[in-house]
Amino acid sequence: MSGQTQRLNVVPTVTMLGVMKARLVGATRGHALLKKKSDALTVQFRQILKKIVSTKESMGDVMKTSSFALTEAKYVAGDNIKHCIRENVKTASLKVRSHQENIAGVKLPKFEYFTDGEIKNDLTGLARGGQQVQACRAAYVKSIELLVELASLQTSFLTLDEAIKTTNRRVNALENVVKPRIENTISYIKGELDELEREDFFRLKKIQGYKRREVEKQRELAKAYAEEKVAEEMSLQKGISLTSAHDMLSQTNKDEDIIF
Question: Which Gene3D superfamilies does the UniProt record give (predicted)?
Answer without folding.
Answer: 1.10.287.3240
